[in-house]
């Protein structure tokens, strides 16, 4: 039996890759650092047809059935529709947005994970390259992964690092000088809460959030962007998500933009956020109901950082040729959450890399896959930076090059 390919990270990139490899009868094992504790990532993402259509044959679903399984309002018979006046960044035509819809990421991950082997609680501690099959080092060998729980993988000729923007695999194997992780100058906060369904929801949110509009957005003072969306809905409760964002203040301290904050400090919300929300004027439903500073204090709020990642192509190819380690998804080309299409790019990475491994993409292999995908990654990051700038009507020029 062929030895399973180790894949680090059970996010969208890793799950799509593993499920597509399974479709091609190639075994793999996903190693995820998080413990399996209930539903993860219960929030909404926008999926474009360019990304999800290639998944349909792999999953054995038609488009309608797929949406009925993963849409944010699937439990109430919806298809994740988006309001017509919402501007969906296509990244200069890179994505077809005509069939875009709002999906619940947790539902999508559950569908992608069907039949896939996932080992939870496996945090990578070390990577040993040049390992011979019988043990020991030396050139031309394989790769072994060591985990915090004391276990390790068998020696493998190919290992995939799909462990996100904070990729430990990348940090261990790619020189830090070659990797640029940029924090874009925007103050962004995200909140979540739930409201009773039925008449309570209709009374507070009017007709703005409906089965035809699971995502709505507006701007204030030509710079502050507000969005409200549904993460998930059923007959009893609706889970609401909101974002507040604006360009960072220039030439003075900005209490809402802390680019050097730690991951743990993301939950520390400054009082100035509520003061700025209080100063917003003329808001209509559902924004008036959502952006109420006193009500917001009870929400689960996070301070988001808009990150982009850049790893030079030559370093990716050298890493693969020297060790057999391949990086993908946000580990290579993270896009900012606002204005970005990271989820769609991750899905496309998974499908195309699996095809390259299976030898079905014109006989191309991983090195050729890097060459073919790199231009798309570069364009995606550049366009996402442009999209977030346009979203706030900001004139500041920012870099976003791979």
Give the SSE layout:
Blueprint: E1 5-8, H1 12-23, E2 28-32, E3 44-47, H2 49-59, H3 63-70, E4 101-104, H4 105-112, E5 118-120, E6 124-131, E7 142-147, E8 159-161, H5 168-173, E9 180-183, E10 186-196, H6 199-205, E11 215-220, E12 224-233, E13 237-247, H7 271-278, H8 287-290, H9 293-296, E14 300-304, E15 307-310, H10 313-323, E16 325-327, H11 330-333, H12 342-358, H13 366-391
Helix pairs in contact: 1-12, 2-12, 10-13, 12-13
Give a concise summary.
This protein has 402 residues and is α/β, with parallel strands linked by helices. The protein is 31% helix and 23% strand.
Would you kindly provide a written description of the structure presented here, covering whatever features stand out?
- It is globular and about 65 Å long.
- A hairpin with a 3-residue loop joins β11 (215-220) and β12 (224-233).
- It contains 13 helices and 16 strands.
- It folds into 2 domains: 1-182 and 307-402, FAD/NAD(P)-binding domain (3-Layer(bba) Sandwich), CATH 3.50.50.60; 185-305, no CATH class.
- By secondary structure, it is α/β, with parallel strands linked by helices.
- A 5-stranded parallel sheet has the order 5-2-1-8-16.
- It is 31% helix and 23% strand.
Q: Keyphrases for this structure?
A:
23% strand; single chain; FAD/NAD(P)-binding domain; 2 domains; alpha/beta; 13 helices; disordered C terminus; five-stranded antiparallel beta sheet
């Amino acid at each position: 039996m062929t030895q399973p390919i180790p894949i680090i990270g059970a996010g969208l990139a890793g799950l799509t890759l593993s499920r597509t490899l399974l479709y091609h009868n190639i075994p793999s094992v996903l190693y995820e650092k998080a413990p399996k504790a209930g539903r993860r990532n219960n929030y909404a993402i926008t999926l474009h047809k360019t990304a999800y259509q290639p998944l349909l044959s792999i999953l054995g679903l038609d488009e309608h059935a797929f949406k009925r399984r993963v849409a944010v309002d699937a439990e109430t018979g919806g298809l994740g529709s988006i309001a017509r006046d919402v501007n969906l960044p296509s990244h200069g035509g890179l994505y077809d947005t005509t069939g875009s819809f709002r999906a619940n990421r947790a539902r999508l991950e559950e569908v992608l994970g069907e039949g896939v082997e996932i080992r939870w609680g496996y945090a990578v501690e070390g990577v040993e390259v040049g390992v011979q099959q019988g043990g020991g080092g030396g050139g031309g060998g394989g790769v072994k992964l060591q985990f915090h729980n004391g276990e390790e993988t068998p020696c493998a000729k190919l290992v995939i690092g799909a462990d996100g923007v904070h990729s430990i695999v990348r940090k261990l194997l790619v020189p830090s000088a070659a990797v640029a992780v940029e924090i874009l100058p925007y103050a962004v906060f995200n909140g979540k809460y739930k409201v009773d369904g039925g008449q309570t929801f209709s009374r507070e949110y009017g007709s703005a959030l409906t089965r035809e509009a699971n995502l709505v957005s507006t701007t204030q003072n030509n710079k502050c962007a507000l969005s409200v969306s549904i993460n998930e809905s059923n007959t009893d409760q609706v889970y609401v998500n909101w974002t507040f964002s604006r360009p960072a203040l220039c030439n003075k301290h900005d209490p809402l933009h802390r680019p050097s904050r730690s991951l743990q400090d993301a939950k520390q919300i400054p009082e100035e956020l509520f003061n700025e929300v209080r100063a917003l004027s003329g808001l209509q439903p559902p924004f008036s109901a959502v952006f109420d500073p006193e009500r917001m204090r009870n929400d689960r709020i996070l301070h988001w950082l808009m990150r982009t990642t850049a790893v030079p192509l030559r370093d990716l190819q050298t890493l693969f040729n020297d060790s057999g380690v391949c990086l993908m998804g946000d580990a290579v080309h993270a896009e900012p959450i606002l204005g970005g299409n990271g989820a769609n790019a991750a899905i496309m990475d998974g499908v195309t890399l699996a095809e390259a491994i299976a030898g079905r993409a014109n006989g191309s292999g991983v090195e050729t896959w890097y060459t073919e995908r790199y231009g798309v990654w570069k364009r995606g990051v550049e366009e996402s930076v442009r999209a977030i700038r346009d979203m706030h009507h900001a004139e500041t020029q920012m870099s976003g090059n791979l």
